[in-house]
Amino acid sequence: MPHLPDSGFHRVASFYDRLARLVYGHHLEQAQLALLPHLPDSARVLVIGGGSGWLLTQLLQTQKHLAILYLDAAPAMLQRAEQRFIQYQQPHHSTVTFRLGTEQALQPEEQFDVVFTPFLLDLFPPKRLQQLMQRLNEALVPGGLWLFADFWPVQQPALWWQRLLATGMYTFFSVLSGVKARKLPDYQLHFDALALREVFSQAFYGGMVQGKVFVKEKRPV
Ligand SMILES: C[S@@+](CC[C@H](N)C(=O)[O-])C[C@H]1O[C@@H](n2cnc3c(N)ncnc32)[C@H](O)[C@@H]1O
Q1: Is 144 in the pocket of ligand 1 (CB under 6 A)?
Q2: What is the pLDDT of residues 176-185, one digit of tens each?
Q3: Is 175 exposed, middle or buried, given 0-12, 13-18 or 19+ CB atoms closer than 10 A?
């Protein structure tokens, strides 16, 4: 396989979901489910880093009219998501486009009402995260929503067990998937820099995981 940027999760695609469930039970899924009621009835949705497609089926089940771009950097993750979509037999009102790549694969003119980052932003060191978030923010229309689910300890500094777990995750995924970050980002700094305003927040897994909704202000920053 030619080297594709940020494609390291290709190597763990066959067991990633089972591992995540083993460690976190259904808490990571619940953090994403909590965001779905915030989706407009009709919207262009960018899902970036959705992995093997569990979230995609949940989006279809909302019965909303969604034009979804499902963008993931790992070929095996994207294939699994496509397979899941093909096997999804329930009626729904959405269209789905699958695309292999990173935010670099977004077209300059592509705009979305919703950007969904499910357990993606924790993978990047600060400078790279800033570039990634900047690009996603450009693709979000004024008034659009950013649905965020990730490891973000409510209590700062994080509790000892949260720091231990985060260190274990970074060690594991740096070796297996080439993850470059070494600690959880200061997300607040990045959202503030983009003038994204938080309108919803819910904590999961003893406060280590949060689901949040941010809105992009209509006025220019
Ligand atoms: C930690 S996994 C999370 C998967 C899924 N959202 C979940 O919660 O089970 C991160 C996912 O983001 C993808 N990814 C990593 N960097 C990416 C990038 N720059 N652009 C798009 N996808 C990326 C990986 O291939 C992987 O599928």
Answers
A1: no
A2: 999 999 999 9
A3: exposed
